[in-house]
Amino acid sequence: xDIETESRRDGVWAQPYELVTGQTQHHKLGHVRLWVTxxxxxxxxxxxxxxxxxxxxxxxxxxxxxLPPASESLKRFVREGNTSTVTFIPAVxxxxxxxxxxxxxxxxxxxxxxIYVGTVVWMKICVxxxxxxxxxxxxxxxxxxxxxxxxxxxxxxxxxxxxxxxVLEAVPKRAWRxxxxxxxxxxxTEPLLLERFSLPTPLLSLHQNDRGELWTPGVVVEVATDMxxxxxxxxxxxxxxxxxxxxxxxxxxKAARGRLVRAxxxxxx
Length: 269
Known about the structure:
It is a single chain. The radius of gyration is 21 Å and the shape is elongated. It has helices spanning 3-7, 264-268; strands spanning 9-10, 17-18, 24-29, 32-38, 42-49, 59-64, 75-78, 85-91, 97-101, 105-107, 112-120, 122-127, 132-138, 143-147, 155-164, 177-186, 192-194, 197-199, 206-209, 214-215, 219-223, 229-234, 245-249, 260-263. The longest helix is centred in the N-terminal third of the chain and has 5 residues, at 3-7. The strands form five sheets. Strands 11, 16, 19, 20, 21, 22, 23 and 24 form an eight-stranded mixed β-sheet that branches. The protein starts with a helix and ends with a helix. By secondary structure, the protein is mainly beta.
């Protein structure tokens, strides 16, 4: 049995891993392969993203003394002192994320619905006791899209590769995706056609339960009667179905107190 097979185990968020000089830690999660190498004077990080032929489930890591193959993705970082621990912290996307229901969904006037969304997270690679950030890696290749009524008014967003679902059990649970419940309240008398929705990802913190799943607080969107704007706020707590959780990462941006009012085309554009 080789060294890599002997040391293979499940990867874990927010847990320091101890390496010795000359060792490389190899991670496989989703469609991403990641190598972190500790040398006498530097850290090296290599990544590879593969074509999504299947939907992998697990996250494994292994350690050995073999250098990974040469890669154009190589990034080198000065090693400060004798730092030898590396910690992987999940992070939400740094832009809003556009999600779509599995199929366009009509919300009748005066009703509400909750859809469950799984969004891909970034991996922050941090070293030392102070968890100094070296770099961060998206755990899926992000594609960009525009939300707004025209090319001059709106904002740049990521497009989620996953559909929103009405049933929580239908959302695939993966170590590299965070689950967010989104409640949409239609105060109008007319029906609201939900074809896509801009999730304010940077405002969401990340929490992990004892099953290794990542969750964010819920988001509530209320469409007013005039339909010119929608109010949005982030829940303080987590969905009960998440179970006991610990916070593993703060939101990238601090949410304003109260409700965030946005033009309707910035939310459902």
